[in-house]
Amino acid sequence: MTLEQIGMYDAMEKRGEITNEKLTQYKYEACPSCGACSFMGTASTMQIMAEALGLMIPGSALMPAMCLDLDEMAYKAGQLSVNLALKGLKAADIVTMKSFENAIMVHAAISGSTNSLLHLPAIAREFGLEIDGDTFDKIHRKSHYLLDIRPTGKWPAQYFYYAGGVPRIMEEIKEQLHLDVMTVTGKTLGENLEEVKVNGYYDRGKIYLDDIGLKWQDVIRSYDNPIGKKGTISVLKGNLAPEGAVVKHSAVPVEMMEAVLKAKTFDSEEEALAAIIEKRINPGEAVFIRYEGPKGSGMPEMFYTTEAISSDVELSKSIALLTDGRFSGASKGPVIGHISPEAAEGGPIALVEEDDLIEINIEKRTLDIIGINGTKKTPSKIEEILNERKKRWKPKKEKYTSGILNIYAKHAVSPMKGAYME
Asked: Global pTM?
């Protein structure tokens, strides 16, 4: 039992399928101690991204909260931080575009959170570098997916550390990496990978794996025996998402990799979640949650809605969730987010009406409105109708009229660029 499963059981409790007492029991089992996400969520992913960028001690990402090695690693990290400060070295002095390319290759190998498509571009911008959704898509297309960790895999997150962590992942994709990049250790990535082979790091993890009867290959596949060969993230584009949209295709059921669905529109997550729980959503529908982008509402995550869908055996393989909001790293299933331009800017997602036909083709990386009121139309007719709808469209009243979210909404850029403020 891991934490990301609680959303599913919460939805089941709301539908009366399990008791509240059972839900409480699951909560205790899923959160047995302190720590961050026990699955490849955003917290876990971004720890790994920090190490992949060369900004952490090799092998320190995702150390379990109760791990005996944690005290020693924390002390070493403190020493290193002081030494870097005394030398006047900053993160921007270490990280280069090659570092980000390495991180994205690791992201593909671990089936990392889609939130990384917000965080990494924003971090890169602070370093004077530019990456975006297309950067991720290009690198993922030629990367191997290796890590069998929840939510897309079967093992809890601590097994990643036991199996060798970031160094093991990097060792498997070594031929694709830029090994000459500098890291916080003062050594290159290539030198770090050689050092962990001889300093006993892998041996410590093996002790834990032996206790649970696994080999590291059960958790981290070899490069020649991948879970997938086309990464884990796709950027879709089309008349519904001219600037792009993001989907974790490694978590999408085969049945939904290519589909034509009827639109069911909601202007908030709360409305959509209620409709799913109350079984007002039917197979073959595309559930839209809009006005949840950066300018619309600060771009909250749609975690409970995705879990409600995943918990319904019928819906999880027959509908899709489409939003200009974002997802938790725990999200799985047929969910497409970051649709840009967002609804608050009058993007096409704001113009979708009930029973419009939506075509999803993840293999071709397309996302289009192909029909009106259940009837297919030509692309030129669709364009004409959308133009007419745009003339009638009126912006919604600002959700936040003061405070930091009001400032953010006024200055946020597209999620496909990182949703940072400019």
From this structure: 0.93
- In tens, the pLDDT along 11-53 reads 889 889 999 999 999 988 887 777 768 889 899 999 999 999 9
Catalytic site includes residue 328: yes
pLDDT in tens, 302-348: 888 888 888 888 888 999 999 999 988 777 778 999 999 999 999 99
**How do strand 335-340 and strand 285-289 relate by DSSP bridges?**
unpaired
Residue of 316, 328, 340, 414 marked catalytic: 328
